């Protein structure tokens, strides 16, 4: 399960990077303009921290919850894999676009804006995906062999998902409190 989840996540990263490199000129120009506007205005933006904390934690836990629910079903396996791929794709696209469009500045901006919360969130998503795939596989095996105990798997699955939700919430706090300050510091350093 670890290997399957890792391959799907890495495939998403690779496809996201490929997608960023293969944008047509008009799309790349528009995205670069949006990025330039953001960079020019970041110092004057006032952040509503409580709202940002609420939104980031809610989004992270919602994503983990979808994986959790899909893991409770036998037919949820393709959905789990699709979510892992989508998370990898978005991360790969973002990192690749930032680094190709602005080279050195883009690398610093990517390190400041994407990496801090991803250090926590990507392992949490990976653990959730592996746990959901494993539990789904347990349910398939249980369907084929009714003597196989499910209760220990249920307890460990729920416990692990609770830990993963805590990590995802911590990633939301990092995204709300640390990442904006790192972005501001990086942009002031680059200007």
UniProtKB/TrEMBL annotation:
UniProt cross-references to Pfam families, sorted A to Z: SpoIIM (PF01944)
InterPro entries per the UniProt record, alphabetical: SpoIIM (IPR014196), SpoIIM-like (IPR002798)
Record key words, sorted: Membrane, Transmembrane, Transmembrane helix
Keyword Membrane in annotation: yes
Residues spanning the membrane: 61-86, 107-140, 160-178
Protein known as: Stage II sporulation protein M
């Amino acid at each position: 399960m670890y290997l399957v989840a890792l391959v799907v996540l890495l495939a998403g990263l690779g496809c996201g990077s490929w997608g960023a490199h293969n944008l047509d000129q008009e799309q790349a120009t528009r995205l670069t303009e949006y990025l330039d506007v953001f960079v020019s205005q970041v110092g004057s933006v006032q952040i509503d921290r409580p709202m940002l904390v609420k939104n980031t934690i809610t989004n992270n836990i919602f994503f983990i919850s979808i994986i959790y629910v899909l893991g409770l079903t036998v037919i949820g396996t393709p959905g789990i894999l699709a979510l892992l791929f989508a998370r990898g794709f978005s991360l790969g696209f973002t990192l690749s676009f930032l680094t190709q469009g602005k080279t050195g500045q883009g690398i610093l901006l990517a390190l400041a804006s994407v990496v801090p919360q991803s250090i926590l969130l990507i392992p949490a998503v990976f653990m959730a995906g592996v746990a959901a795939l494993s539990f789904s596989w347990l349910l398939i095996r249980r369907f084929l062999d009714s003597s196989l105990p499910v209760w220990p798997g249920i307890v460990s699955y729920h416990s692990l998902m609770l830990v993963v939700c805590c990590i995802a919430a911590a990633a939301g706090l990092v995204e709300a409190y640390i990442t904006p300050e790192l972005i501001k510091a990086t942009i002031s350093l680059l200007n």
